[in-house]
Amino acid sequence: MIDIRGQKFGRLEAIEPIKTGSSLWWRCKCECGNCKDVSGTKLRNGHTKSCGCYRRDVQSDNGKRTINELYDKVFGRWRVIDRAGTRNGQATWNCECACGIKKVVYGGMLISGRSQSCGCLAREKGIIANNKHGECKADDKSNEWKIWRGMIKRCYTSTNRSYPNYGGRGIKVCDRWLHSFETFLEDMGRCPEGMFLEKINNNGDYCKENCRWATHYDQCRNKRTNVWVEVDGERMILMDAIRLLHINSRSFYSYKNNHDLTHQETIDHFSNR
Fold first, then answer.
1. pTM confidence score
2. Is 1 within the bounds of a domain?
3. Ordered mean pLDDT values, 10 residues apiece, the chain (273 residues)
């Protein structure tokens, strides 16, 4: 028996083996939620890829074949733009990679996960596998290399938990850094102890002109979610104003909530005492 338990074949995931006649079949769960018993051979050779929902999703529309619900969806680094047409009897889609490259991709390749980028993902993996800088050894990765990898994942890996705040907002990594850790290290130098990589303009891309090493305190002061207020005509973030006026933060928010005031109104109250 070839154990394929947990493996995916198109839309089907092999759950458990079942004996049917003289051959081994597998009970599979489809992405649509249905279960189907399929021959292990048909799964492995790609003959069966769904419970049948894939064919049902391919509908006739004025002589053209279209697959529903792929518009504007994200598959790995691909974002589907619109329908391209049909090639070899299969639906194709115009897609844009997170790095900016546009390409026509088979819908089946997107859904199955066999195509996740224009090729930049494989190139990055090749760079990592064949690197000569010695900074990403399995048991000894440098801090700078971890920061570089984290930066790329935030911008181009849709499954990364930080992707919505970076790649999901259109933030990219400059070409000089995207494919080369060495140039990133050359531009930024070693990370000082206790500091982190920070973008000066939160809405800008990662590049030499928009990045610096900063402390955790500096990073907190540069968040998009910071509240800005004025104290004696000087604009500053709320936490700096609270420190300047020697206000207990608990007392500040208690007074604000009890009197239903804005942050600025509460600061004005304490600054005029």
1. 0.42
2. no
3. 81 84 82 82 83 61 49 84 79 86 87 82 61 56 86 86 85 88 90 87 90 78 75 79 84 88 87 74
